[in-house]
Amino acid sequence: MDLKILITWLIPLFPLAGWFLWGIFGKYFKGLSGYIASGFVAASFILSVILFFIVAYSHGFTDTLYPWVYAGIFKAGVSADIDRLSVIMLVMVTGISTLVHVYSIGYMKGDKGFSRYFSFLNLFVFSMIMLVISNNLLLLYVFWEAVGFCSYILIGFWYERKSASDAGKKAFIVNRIGDFGFAVGIFLLFVTTKTLNYETVFAAIPSVPAYTTTIIALLLFAGAVGKSAQFPLYIWLPDAMEGPTPVSALIHAATMVTAGVYMIARFHVIFSYSPAASEVVLIIGTFTAFFAAFIALTQFDIKRIIAYSTISQLGYMFMAVGIGSYTAGIFHLISHAVFKGLLFLTAGSVMHGLSGELDLRKMGGLYSKMKTTAVTFIVGGLALSGIPPFSGFFSKDAVLADIYNKGFYFAWIIGEITALMTAFYIFRLIFLAFFGEPKPDQNKHAHESPQIMTIPMIILAVFAVIIGFLGIPPFNDSLFYNFLHTDFKNAYNFAPFVNNTPWYILSLISVFAGLLGIYAAYLLYIKKAFDPERIKSIFKPVYVLSYNKVYIDEIYNFLIVKPLLVFFDFLWKVIDVKVIDGAVNGIALAFAGFSAKARRIQNGMLMSYILTLSIGAAALLLYYFIR
Amino acid sequence: MDFFIKYLLSILIFFPVVSIFLLLPVNKKNEGILRNFSTFLSLVEFIFSLYLFIYFKQNTYKFQFVEKFNWIPSFGASYFLGIDGVSLFLILLTTLLTFISLLSSYRYIKEHVKEFVILMLLLETFMIGTFAALDVLLFYLFWEFMLIPMYFIIGMWGTGKRIYSAVKFVLYTLSGSLIMLFGLIYIFIMHYDQTGDFTFNILRLYNTHISNGFQLILFIALFLGFAIKIPLFPFHTWLPDAHTEAPTAGSVILAGVLLKFGVYGFFRFAIPLLPSAAFALSPFVIILGVIGILYGAFVSIVQKDLKRLVAFSSVSHMGFIMLGLFAMSAISVDGSILQLLNHGITTGALFLFVGMLYERMHTRQIKDFGGIAKKAPILTTFFMISVLASVGLPGLNGFIGEFLILIGSFHSYPVLTIIATSGIIFAAVYLLWMFQRVMFQDITNPAAESFEDMNLREIITILPLVALMFLIGFYPMPFLERIDPTVLHFLSMINHHHKAVYNAIKLKAGLSNA
Amino acid sequence: MEALFYVFSFIAIFSALMVVTMRNPLTSALYLVLCFFALAGFYVILDMQFLAAMQILVYAGAIMVLVVLVIMLLNISRIKNIKSDLHQKIIGVLISLILFAEIVLYIINGAQKRPSGIFTHALIKRIGNTQVIGEFLFTGYILPFEIASILLFVAIIGAYLFAKKKF
Amino acid sequence: MDNYLIVASMIFCIGALGVIIRKNLIVIFMSLELMFNAANLGFVAASNRLNLISGDIFVIFVIVVAAAEAAIALGIAIAFYREKGTVDIDMANELKN
């Protein structure tokens, strides 16, 4: 076997082995399982890096491990498609996973589900790796759902809490709604192209009628909407914060939720041949980016703020892939994975220090107590706000510049406003939590987290600073662009550039927006130039709307969940029991009733039998007589 | 050994009967010996049936292990056995599930142990006989015999309204199968009239030419018999009652094997015998199937009784199978047959878990549970795997079957397939919601505090099923490559017949362009 | 002969009516005996002396003695008190009359069948009716004859079992 | 011949009447005997008219059956009386559940 193929299959093998080991023998390993699991994932990471360089200096390849489902003309194998896109994703996924694993050793210390936790975390890494390297849609779908399952089980990790198990269930079901569309899309794709292999599908797509492509693309996008928490299916992600924080960092910020973006980038051929579908992607992305940032403005739960921020940033990525700037989308995906992972880990560190406290109103002045956490958090916040030279600046601006230069001005304006709001809410969080007066009741025992947690944070912070330089020189000539662009050569260029505004002008505007947001937060929460309460009362309706998350959960509950449950109950108690079973029992009862009547004749009195007998004889004779 | 292989099917059919005679001398009071010995015998039977798998030639659709003896020559009935890729797996499923259900009832069945094991073994004989029979009369005989042990199993060891359920089950299925018998005999007579060949041999009956109008009538007759057994949507109401009240072993066999007979009947009898009618009526059957998918899922969501929930989920799953079978594309029929096995494995496992929960808590109401996960991690793990397999999570068996069914049906019936696909959402809703309320959250019922985890026997009971879930999920090829030739032959056969009839009509109408 | 027929008919019908209407079963039994004698008379008219003898021997002699014995065995005063319902009587009479009317109508309207056998009066008289019956009974009807004997045997055992104090 | 048949049918109907209206088991039994005899008369008359002998043979069998029946019926009557203390047929209602 070729070395690179061996490496390819070893990468998912390590976490898979880890899953089995901790799942079955977890209790014999005790605390060790965390270290070994991290080692396994680290091995995957190292192999991924090796594979990255192999691919970077040679070319991509595909390989089939074994035939999986062959039925009739349907053929799908367990096979990998290694190209630049997948190796970049591989390195990102395994890298962040390694750090999160290490961090988790400290974070989950003493939890009685310690090895269960690492088992599922390893399973997640395995699934995510397979999702990234799969080369047919069936395999992609399998691991698409598998990561959803891991998310379900890890969100509901503390299953004794009703809210946690509710959140897990909600995540799974909402994802399923998206996957429903995804599955139908796969069916349609198979029916039109008779294959599910990437290469053959992509080869066939240009000759497929445009409306069919559009329908396929939209259906596939439905899956992405569910998985990547876009409007209207984003509702599971904020609730998913019930899970352990490293899980939020890994699954709900860095890797799984970005699978939708990856999927669109992977199927760029399908999406680029359907401008209409891409437009929908752009609209949904833009709206979600704004909408989630709007909600994030007024929340007090630090994890939820970051979660809404994730939704918002995913919106940016969808904007990018929606206008055909796939490299920009993936670049933002990578840099977002780094800084959002960082933010979650630091938030986890805050929680750890405050024994699980999440409410911003009960925090303050933590900077002095937990310096490392605060510094790394600020690095993440700056990256998120798009302040140079942090990574967010390069990636977000690559997206926004492309949007502007391709002529989508409205989306660009929304994007800039969102950037302002983003800077505001993340610095509101930073100022409220780390600066200002310490809250006496809470902060007594606040302490810095152990090194095993802070080191991954520091590493991520360093990357949050340097990874942006891959985007130098900004715009369509960067290192990253040149590296990845070859993978998207088959895309149909449906949105050509219409402007040629230089990057520094556009960047200046974005940076200005970001700084404005930070300044506003500074004025409100540090200088106290304005009383936040007054502003609250001025914009009361808007504030209430934002604070209550635009009542989306309630609307869904009231419009969909409740009526459906009533309907189902009706279906069971009336239709099933009364109507259908009633009909069946009715037939039986009719017979029973008839025989009850018939039994009256058999009253046990011999006399009446004899009487009947004679009547019968008379009647019989009469019959013969009149015949 | 040659003899063994040659008469393997007969050996499989009659080994349980022989086992019964071995068990008869054992004293009624020696319950331990009865249980262990019967379980051992069913294990031996299962091992025997594995020889079928080993010696099965996979690249042919021809019937294998054929045995043929005269039986009632004056009726044209013969003792004619043989299996193809479909009945192979169904027989394996039967032997496996019988073993498992005997093993599972060590704790559940406390009274009349001897009668119980004898009835189970008898049932096994009849079930294998039904799958192996290639003679219509022999098939019908075994088919009806199956009801008797099942009636007693539900009636004697059931709970609640067990007599009502047992009677309902028997009367309902019996009335269906009588109509079916009428149809089969009618075909037999027609075949005799046409060819002068006085035979119940199904392979020869396939060649009967029946006009389209008659096909419709006969198909409806056969349809009633098989659809009730499946059960298809409006005929399903016996199922929740029977499942809910039956003992665990009864539910496992009922869901795992007995429901398969309906689909098997369609596959072996109704569709190949009456292809034109099958083609003409397939949209209606599929509509019923799709209604069943959603209906079963909807009703499952609001169930309060665990077993009833699983029973209604069966309705939903069997809807998928009917959709795949009647979509009549190679992929979907492959998927259907695979899903038959999956449903047997998964739902069987779910019933086992419900039984385990019932044995420990003496209740089946979902609201009485909660927080079991804390007390019983092993049970939680296996239960979760089974639930997820039932949900159709990729990587487990349910997904492969459902996916093949849906992708195969999409071409012919896109809208109905999309509606059916939405069933996967609701499957997640009802199963996960149930799982959350039963296993997760906090303990509310004090009885759960002393909840014991699975013991070794129970783990052994479950392990083969869970292993199969993973095997079919990750590597279904051993199954698919044996099913596929049979299915392809099935499809080419019905297409051929259908075309032949169609051409004959065209010829009559003078439309033939030849 | 005609006169004898009418005499016997009158006796037979009268005694039959008495059997049905008398309250005391013992009286009924005695009228029944009378009726049997009348019937035996008919048989004599019809040249079947053997049957007449059998009628008197078996019916009047054996069966009726048995009946009378049983009546004696039971408590006669309580048996006498069993009353019939009035509406039942009316229905019974009605039904019987209808039945009778129908049968009569049937007999009258029925097609007359020609004699088909060879056993004319003369022949029977010549051979003797006992011999004729005997020949038939032990040749053509031997199997029913044997079965009848088994039936009697069964009846004896049955009667014994029924009359036993405990089953 | 018709006259014989009419007499026979008359006796038969009287027997039937007795069976219907009387409730005394013994009387019912005797009425049944009347009906038997009516049938016998019919047999003999018809056999005589048609110059056959089978009717007469049948009468013998009927007599045999009647004898057997008498034995059983009276046995039942005694058993019934022992059980119920009466021979009223209305008391024979065990068939009614």
Features:
heterotetramer; A: mainly alpha; two-stranded antiparallel ribbon; 26 helices; C: 167 residues; mainly alpha; Four Helix Bundle (Hemerythrin (Met), subunit A); 2 domains
What does this structure look like?
The complex is a heterotetramer of chains A (about 625), B (about 525), C (about 170) and D (about 100). Chain A is mainly alpha-helical and about 625 residues long. Chain A is built from 26 helices and two strands. In chain A, α3 (about 85-105) runs parallel beside α15 and α14 (about 300-320) runs parallel beside α17 (about 390-405). Chain A starts with a helix and ends with a helix. Chain B has about 525 residues and is mainly alpha-helical. Chain B has a domain at about 275-485. Helix content of chain B is about 75%, strand content about 5%. Chain B has a two-stranded antiparallel ribbon. In chain B, a hairpin with a 4-residue loop joins β1 (about 65-70) and β2. Chain B starts with a helix and ends in a 6-residue tail after the last helix. Chain C is built from eight helices and no strands. The N and C termini of chain C lie far apart (about 55 Å). Chain D has about 100 residues and is an all-alpha fold. Chain D has helices at about 1-20, 25-50, 55-85. Helix content of chain D is about 80%, strand content about 0%. Chain D starts with a helix and ends in a 13-residue tail after the last helix. Chains C and D meet through α1, α2, α3, α5 and α7 of C and α1, α2 and α3 of D.
Q: What is the H-and-E element order of chain A? A: HHEEHHHHHHHHHHHHHHHHHHHHHHHH
- Numbering strands along the chain, what is their spatial order in the largest sheet of chain B? 1-2
* Oligomeric state of the chains in view: heterotetramer
Strands across the major sheet of chain A, in which order?
1-2
Low-confidence blocks of residues of chain B: none
Order of helices and strands of chain B: HHHEEHHHHHHHHHHHHHHHHHH
* Radius of gyration computed on alpha carbons of chain A: 30 Å
- Helix/sheet category of chain B: mainly alpha
Q: Report the end-to-end length of chain B measured between terminal Cα atoms.
A: 55 Å
Q: From the helix content, strand content and strand pairing of chain A, which structural class follows?
A: mainly alpha
- Give the proportion of residues in helices of chain B: over 70%
What amount of the residues of chain B lies in strands?
under 5%
Write the layout of secondary structure elements.
The complex is a heterotetramer of chains A (627), B (514), C (167) and D (97).
Chain A: H1 3-29, H2 32-57, E1 61-71, E2 74-82, H3 84-107, H4 114-133, H5 137-155, H6 162-193, H7 198-204, H8 210-227, H9 236-239, H10 245-254, H11 259-266, H12 268-272, H13 275-296, H14 302-322, H15 326-353, H16 371-385, H17 391-405, H18 409-434, H19 440-443, H20 451-466, H21 479-484, H22 503-527, H23 532-538, H24 540-547, H25 552-601, H26 606-626
Antiparallel strand pairs in A: 1-2
Chain B: H1 2-6, H2 8-23, H3 31-55, E1 64-72, E2 77-83, H4 85-104, H5 113-132, H6 136-145, H7 147-157, H8 162-195, H9 202-205, H10 212-229, H11 238-245, H12 248-273, H13 275-301, H14 306-327, H15 330-361, H16 372-375, H17 377-391, H18 397-410, H19 414-439, H20 456-474, H21 477-508
Antiparallel strand pairs in B: 1-2
Helix pairs in contact in B: 2-3, 2-5, 3-4, 3-5, 4-5, 4-12, 4-15, 4-20, 5-6, 5-7, 7-8, 8-10, 8-11, 10-12, 10-13, 11-12, 11-14, 12-13, 12-14, 12-15, 12-21, 13-14, 13-19, 14-15, 14-18, 14-19, 15-17, 15-18, 15-20, 15-21, 17-19, 17-20, 18-19, 18-20
Chain C: H1 2-21, H2 25-45, H3 49-73, H4 76-80, H5 86-109, H6 121-127, H7 129-138, H8 142-163
Helix pairs in contact in C: 1-2, 2-3, 6-7
